[in-house]
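To close the section, here is one more complete example, presented without commentary so you can practise reading it yourself. The ligand is zinc ion.
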Amino acid sequence: MNNLIADSESSIRLAIFLGMFLLLAVAEVLFPRRKPAYSKPKRWLSNLSISALNTLVVRISFPIAGVAAAMLAQDRQWGLLNQLAVAPWLNILIFLLLFDLAIYWQHRLFHVVPWLWRFHRMHHTDVDYDLTTGSRFHPFSILISAAIKIALVIVLGASAAAILIAEVVLNVTAMFNHSNLKLPEGVDRVLRIILVTPDMHRVHHSTDSIEHNSNFGFNFSGWDRLFGSYLDQPKMSHADMDIGINGFLDEKSTKLTYLLIQPFKNSSNP
Ligand SMILES: [Zn+2]
Ligand SMILES: [Zn+2]
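Output:
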């Protein structure tokens, strides 16, 4: 099983990423939630370039990726789940839940620690909101996330299947919940009982500081309800609310080179 995962890991990831990207890109054009304010090709080029750069930076900086870390932990019998020898399906379920919980708290931390906020802020300074916003993160914040993820895999003893599924799910849901997709109200309401929907996460990208300090969840909507950070809707409508961070609302925030130095720039809205 582990050999099969190791051999086909890259192809599984790429096929699911491309399939989901195409599906959402078409859906956004057919059923848009908002009218884009800025040039799409320019933003997409920057957002996708930074995503490619992040993949490269993580590969160079980490001697071991998530799946390889899980195999090492299993081999050496490290981690809680390896010690307890839980069933494979339970290993996947527990890791999916705890990984998502860790991402939730990491995200909250990125909003309250001033220097971390400067790096995470780049994700929020996208002046439009679509599926490519989901891959727009500063390389430094991606390195922190990768370190936390590998530590979690080893401490918990996640299986190779669990980390691969968790990474693919995160990749797909990040595209989905950042998409400029108008879901019927009833569908949004039902999905939101369990999952973070585009409307729920869009609130988190509002220029309003109360709104962008709400809805931190990435996959399961329950963490925000449980920890009191849930906000159902923005003050303005989804079509009219302002997206981004005050002080970074000009066209510069669509340029790749500017995005990399943005953490070192000051804004009027911390
Ligand atoms: Zn955030
Ligand atoms: Zn986001």
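Once you have examined the tokens, check your reading against these statements. Residues 2-264 form one domain. The chain has a mean pLDDT of 91.
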